[in-house]
Specification:
- A hairpin with a 4-residue loop joins strand 7 and strand 8.
- This protein is of the alpha+beta class.
- 47% of the residues lie in helices and 12% in strands.
Length: 305
């Protein structure tokens, strides 16, 4: 690297990696398909709680409210709609959790890599002292993922992953589908309560009236909580995409050094291509890898084809 080039650390001055560390440089993501997973205890517990609450809601809706219904088509239509939305929500959750959010290759701050950048004289680049990687513009280090993430919005424990450049679409779909099924569940609870009052709780459910009431109350509380949380997250994510500004950049009040995209350009960059029904599908572009354990540098859990 010429003397005109400068390397600026984010927090403290540290030298480039030694030649011994160059051997630990990771294989290029284009050469190997990786299943991303963060072994964080808090995140895994939160993810399991999320799945449990979705299955609880599905149980109450299906077995407490729909199957005992006298109207066959009411039960079938609402059952198909609710369960389909629940599958889409859980699939979106999995895609968010198991998709690389845009991690910068760890330990790429080597002399060989620096020379390959072909920097102009006087050009400033940044190196993260925590993961020893060259930080692209708008990348931030996550202390939980222990990686620098491109266009990192925030780390969400409920999906046990960062929300970044490559998985923001799935997080938006997850919050949208959870908000929709929460609204659906609340509507079904209201209708079921009115029906039970009319028949004096005698034939409205296969469960006893106290159990039915308790399950419906828990479902209403869950629905209100989930609807409020996910609706807020969904709206803030759309606002970030349309304004081409991540939540971290907004909180830090960073002045944009990049050219902002238009709203439609931002939506197309996140969801991919022109508007279509594929934007609503968490299965679009899904390729299932064959999992083979592979040792990584300084911890982390990754699998490759």
């Amino acid at each position: 690297m010429s003397s005109g080039h400068r390397l600026r650390d984010v927090e403290q001055q540290r030298p480039l990696l030694d030649r011994e560390d160059e051997a630990l440089e990771r294989v290029s993501p284009s050469e190997v398909k990786q299943l991303w997973f963060i072994p964080d205890c808090c995140g895994m517990v939160c993810a399991l709680i999320t799945w449990f609450l979705v299955f609880f809601a599905d149980f109450v809706v299906t077995f407490v409210m729909l199957l005992p219904s006298r109207s066959f088509w009411y039960a079938v239509i609402n059952g198909v709609v609710f369960n389909s939305l629940a599958v889409l929500a859980l699939a979106s959750h999995l895609r968010t959790m198991l998709t690389d959010p845009g991690a910068v290759p760890k330990g790429n701050a080597t002399k060989k890599y620096m020379e390959s950048l072909q920097l102009k004289p006087g050009e400033v680049i940044y190196k993260c002292p925590k993961c020893c990687s060259i930080k692209p513009e708008r990348a931030h280090h996550c202390s939980i993922c222990k990686r620098c993430i491109r266009k990192m919005d925030h780390h969400c424990p409920w999906v046990n992953n960062c929300v970044g450049e490559k998985n923001q679409r799935f997080f938006v779909l997850f919050t949208m589908y959870i908000a929709v099924i929460s609204s659906h569940a609340l509507g079904l609870c209201g209708y079921q309560f009115i029906t039970c009052v009319k028949v004096q709780w005698s034939e409205c459910s296969d469960f006893s009236p106290p159990v039915t009431m308790m399950l419906m109350i828990f479902l209403c509380m869950e629905g209100l909580l989930f609807l409020t949380f996910t609706a807020v997250m969904f709206s803030t994510q759309l606002h970030s995409i349309c304004n081409d500004e991540t939540e971290i950049e907004r909180l830090k009040n960073e002045k944009p050094t990049w050219e902002r995209q238009t709203r439609w350009a931002g939506l197309r960059s996140v969801f991919g291509g022109q508007p279509s029904l594929l934007w609503m599908s968490p299965f679009a572009g899904l390729k299932l890898p064959i999992l083979v354990p592979r040792r990584t540098w300084r911890g982390g859990a990754e699998f490759s084809v």
